[in-house]
Predict the structure of 2-octaprenyl-6-methoxyphenyl hydroxylase.
Amino acid sequence: MVLRAQGHAVTLIGPAGNAADTRTTALLEGSVQALAKAGVVIAGNPAAAPLRVMSIVDATQRLIRARPIAFEAKEIGLDAFGWNIANGALTQALLNRLAELEIEHVTGRLLSVDIADGHVGLTIDGAEPLTAGLVIAADGRNSMVRQAAGIGTTRHDYPQTALALNLRVSRDHREISTEFHTESGPFTLVPLPGRRASLVWVVSPERAEALKELDDAALAHEIEKQSHALLGRVSIDSQRSFWPMNTVMATSQSGTRIALIGEAAHVLPPIGAQGFNLTLRDIAALAKALRDAKDPGASAVLDAYVKARRADIGTRHTAVDLLNRSLLSDQFALQGLRGLGLYALERIGPLRRVVMRQGLARAVED
């Protein structure tokens, strides 16, 4: 959508998406603004809830425990840090905008990628072959396009599994997102419209297997205990999904006439709402590099894109990794540093506001 607005010819290749997907995405303010600029309005969508307060609670049983801390959007002049929306509703909003812009959408499966000196040839199941000057790979962590470009990856597996599902709750969440820090990882409740919330619960693989065996009532009871009944009685309101926790980083974010975005370039654990928000910043940086480019696949264009994304991705990867390791570690010094950092954020207003603004890194390019 952004590239079409710049005058580029664009063809989308990929499945139509699942409009019934009940999983959710927390879109931070920069992402909300980027989507609005592209004609996709999230704020006020009936399937989305605002995130006005973000609270962190140290629920570990270790010697050094941080005090609870709450970040309020109004402190930095915002109505909300962002909006949490069901993936199905987000998919439908994006598809509607594609249709409005009359962007060609080929829903067949990509079969092969042939990279030549001046173009890339694409073979698609059930459709005519395509030729492009630039292919933007958004085909996930097992990207066929990335592999065809010969771009490798580095990977780190954590001894954790993430459980994601939606809940109905008996108490108002008051548009507060609450992240409990536990010895196995974060337990995060994020508002949805009405008395509903989405949950991402990071546990050990052994605990995940035990949770899989529970019926809905028993699982709801475990969630109530882990949340200290913050939202009262809960009931399961969606299917459960379990994800092994890992990071996957492409060794380069571009190849010959190939640009990687999203999980084709970087996979991070579901901590701090970084995944899709990083993807939108990829798109913004790529759009800036392509602005006025006569040859969109030229190496100078792609080099500018890679350079623009390096610091942001590296910083986010390091921050998420350090936070996660600090929860898993029994090292006294690391626990102390985490507690001291949260204490400083609670007590030092200017520092807290800088961190809040940095966490909302904008995806809009002026």
Q: What stands out?
A: The mean pLDDT is 88. Residues 2-17+89-154+246-359 form a domain with the FAD/NAD(P)-binding domain fold (CATH 3.50.50.60). The CA atoms of residues 281 and 363 lie 4 Å apart. The first strand starts at residue 11 and ends at 13.
